[in-house]
Write a structure and sequence with these properties.
Strand order of the largest sheet: 1-5-8-9-2
Order of helices and strands: EEEEHHHEHEHHHHEEEHEHEHH
Strand content: 15-25%
Radius of gyration: 19 Å
Shape: globular
Distance between the termini: 37 Å
Structural class: alpha/beta
Number of strands: 11
Largest sheet: 5 strands, mixed
Length: 312
């Protein structure tokens, strides 16, 4: 992967992954973005437009009259996102512009999977144009950080190349990966009614859509979670909130969100108290935890996911 630093053109060192268990420090990749939200000029649209009420955690996306909003803005809805016509357009724009230029504690770096492999951008766009080529709102499922065998390769959260091809019909030729969280997620999606039904209703992403790595005393680079180090969390907190606001600006229903991982939920709750992003936070066990420690009970966890998501 290409590491993003203040010095342009740096070559990323190889990352050794100990585990991707979300309960173990230095386990899952992550990142964020540093774009500044701009005002929305509704005169660019027709008589009505899709306008996420993104500063009201209990509100759902609505359609509003252009005449009643000319001259106003939604601070969490980036202008470039607003100009995109479909959910897919907004996601692709978001991913193509992901970057982090903030400070980090010594020994940490941010890496961008999209800069290393052009095919990642291609298959990511194919996926979203297949399943999100509309302007309907989605419910938000919040992960921790991208896995280097999942979204770190395909650009699609919880989707390795095997599931991308076999389930979604999108082949990736430059990489071949197997990711256990993807196994659970797509078993659950199959039971839910299939990828088409699931992705029409839900959107999955993370507060850090890019990867974070840390350097050991031996000089090796390991995957890191955004919450592994208190200084790391403090330095990236505002960018993480900005990233979540941009996710909301894609067209998400924020009345209830689904958080994957209990420790992740603790930190999302902190961000939510500060920024008032979401209404209800519903916590589900992380797929990696289920596959690594509770694989014998996979069936019951799939049932729990489906019951929780269906009642929303």
């Amino acid at each position: 992967m290409h590491r993003q630093t203040k010095k342009h053109g740096a070559i990323a060192q190889l990352v050794e992954q100990r585990t991707e268990n979300p309960c173990v420090p230095s386990s899952i990749l992550g990142g964020t973005t540093n774009e500044t939200a701009n005002s929305l000029d509704l005169s660019k649209f027709g008589e009505s437009c899709f306008y996420p009420r993104c500063m009201d955690a209990a509100a759902k996306p609505i359609k509003v009259s252009r005449k009643s909003f000319i001259g106003n803005s939604c601070t969490a809805f980036n202008f470039s996102m607003a100009m995109a016509n479909t959910f897919a357009d907004r996601i692709v724009k978001f991913n193509r512009n992901l970057h982090y230029t903030g400070e980090l504690p010594e020994g940490f770096q941010v890496m961008n999977p999209y800069l290393d492999n052009p095919e990642t951008l291609q298959v990511m766009e194919q996926f979203y144009r297949k399943y999100y080529n509309d302007s309907e709102p989605r419910r938000f499922i919040v992960g921790i950080n991208p896995s280097r065998h999942g979204a770190g390769v395909t650009g699609v959260p919880f989707t390795d190349t095997k599931r991308l091809e076999e389930v979604c019909g999108i082949r990736m030729t430059s990489a071949h990966t197997h990711e256990v969280s993807s196994v659970f997620m797509y078993e659950m999606i199959r039971e839910y009614g299939g990828a088409g039904k699931f992705y029409r209703q839900f959107y999955i992403n993370s507060p850090f859509p890019l990867a974070i790595v840390r350097q050991t005393k031996e000089g090796k680079w390991l995957n890191a979670n955004y919450y592994d180090d208190p200084a790391l969390f403090r330095m990236t907190e505002n960018f993480m909130i900005d990233s979540l606001k941009k996710h909301i600006g894609l067209g998400l229903d924020t009345s209830e969100v689904f958080i994957l991982g209990k420790k992740n939920a603790d930190y999302i709750e902190k961000l939510n108290r500060k920024a008032k992003l979401f209404g209800r936070l519903t916590v589900l066990e992380h797929p990696r935890y289920i596959q690594q420690y509770k694989s014998k009970d996979q069936r019951s966890y799939i049932d729990k996911y489906i019951l929780t998501l269906e009642r929303s």
